[in-house]
Amino acid sequence: MKIGLGSDHNAYEMKEDLKRYIEDLGHEVVDYGSQDNCTEVDYPEVAFEVSDGINRGTLDRAILVCGTGLGMAIAACKVPGIRAVTAHDTYSAERARKSNNAQVLTMGAKVIGIEAAMKVVEMYLQSDFPGGNSARKVQQIMDKELEYLQGTGSNA
Ligand code: RB5
């Protein structure tokens, strides 16, 4: 798969380590920065750019890392069509795909060590969305988003 990978300055080292790991798993990585750990990078800018790549179909999945993983997930979820989740354990990473069809996984470099993060990434990348009952629930989320975008939701 083609995997978008991005970080802010707080997670530069984790991003670099994950890049090598994901490539070793046999995937292609598109690196959206950061370029070092001292130049401040605003995580929303990275999250938006990577999310646009998912929506354009140039990326199959994406992994975003910052200090906590939280800001990246919040920002990515603001991009219509994106389902981004923060997961720091393998069970959540598996369910993020199987239940939620999340195209984006986020993690925090100040929360999880690199060895555990690699296991989470591996589980996330090897898990697929089976559809079924989960598809109905994901569709409910996407329908709600569309209502808001069209101004026909409770914001009307
Ligand atoms: C770092 O503490 C934090 O502000 C940033 O990296 C990111 O985690 C925000 O959500």
Tell me the strand order in the biggest sheet. 2-1-3-5-4
- CATH A-level architecture: 3-Layer(aba) Sandwich
Give the helix level as a range of percent. 40-55%
Query: Terminal Cα separation, in Å?
Result: 39 Å
Low-confidence stretches: none
The count of strands amounts to: 5
**H/E series, N to C?**
EHEHEHEHEHH
Summed up, the helix count is 6
Oligomer: single chain
Overall CATH class: Alpha Beta
Rounded mean pLDDT score? 97
How would you describe the overall organization of this protein?
Its EC number is 5.3.1.6. The chain has helices at 12-24, 43-56, 70-77, 90-98, 114-126, 133-150, and strands at 2-7, 28-31, 61-66, 84-86, 104-108. With 156 residues, it is α/β, with parallel strands linked by helices. It has one domain (2-130): 3-Layer(aba) Sandwich (Ribose 5-phosphate Isomerase B, Chain: A), CATH 3.40.1400.10. It has a five-stranded parallel β-sheet with strand order 2-1-3-5-4, with helices on both faces. 38% of the residues are buried.
List key phrases describing it.
five-stranded parallel β-sheet; 5 strands; 15% strand; 156 residues; 6 helices; single chain; Ribose 5-phosphate Isomerase B, Chain: A; globular; binds D-ribose; alpha/beta; 48% helix; RpiB_LacA_LacB; SPI_LacAB/RpiB
